[in-house]
C-alpha cells in the first residue's frame, strides 16, 4: 500500500513542489494539503495520513503545537510527523522533537532525501541519522537541562548494556556503528534499541536521543 502523506506549509508554491516530487513515486500518495497547524489537525483526523510533512512557522497555529496535538502524549493515531525547517529556524526543532516529531528535514534538501525521509518515518524509524539531531541539540544546549538534575527513575529500568546503547544512539551512531563499537551483532543492537524504546515509552530513536539529553545521561557537546 502507498504511504499516505499530508503536506503542511503556508506557502502554496512549496506544497506544489513537494507534491510533484512525491507523486512521482509509486509507493507514495499525497492525500491532502494544509496551510496552517489548525488545518493540519483537521486534515489528519479526516484523511488519516501515515506521514505529515510539517512546516514550523505558520499562521494561526505553528508546526510545534500542531505536532504536539497530532503525535504528543496520549495520541495513538498512525500519523508520524516529519518537520521541515531552515537553518535560521533550528531553535524550534528541539521543541518539535519534544512534541512528538519523528525527525526533521531541511527545506532545501535534495528530492531523493525527501523521498527517503518519508519512507523512513513511515516505517516507524527516526529521520534520518540521529547525528543530525545530536548536532541540533548541541547547538541549542541552553534549551536543555544542565545534566545536574536528578536522573529519572525510568532510566533505572534499563540494563547496563541498554544504557550504553542509548548513549550511542544519542550521539548519532547507526545500528551498524553501535554494533562495531560494542562488538555485537547488528541484530542484537536492534533488540537493545527496541527494549530501550519500550521500557522508556518512547516513540523512536529521535525521542530516545532527546530523552538521553534531557535526563542528563548525555551532556551537550560530550563526545
TrEMBL record:
Q: Does the keyword Phosphoprotein apply?
A: yes
Q: Write down a Pfam family by its short name.
A: GerE
* Top-level taxonomic group: Bacteria
**UniProt keyword Flavoprotein present:** no
Location of 4-aspartylphosphate modifications: 55
Chain segments annotated as transmembrane: none
SMART domains linked to this entry: HTH_LUXR, REC
Per the database record, which ranges form the Response regulatory domain? 4-122
Tell me which UniProt keywords the record has, alphabetically. Answer: DNA-binding, Phosphoprotein, Transcription, Transcription regulation
InterPro entries found in the cross-reference section: CheY-like_superfamily (IPR011006), NreC/VraR/RcsB-like_REC (IPR058245), Sig_transdc_resp-reg_C-effctor (IPR016032), Sig_transdc_resp-reg_receiver (IPR001789), Tscrpt_reg_LuxR_C (IPR000792), WalR-like (IPR039420)
User: Which residues belong to any copy of the HTH luxR-type domain?
Assistant: 151-216
Query: What is an example of a GO molecular function annotated in this UniProt entry?
Result: DNA binding
Under the heading CDD domains, the entry gives: LuxR_C_like (cd06170), REC_NarL-like (cd17535)
- Its recorded name reads DNA-binding response regulator
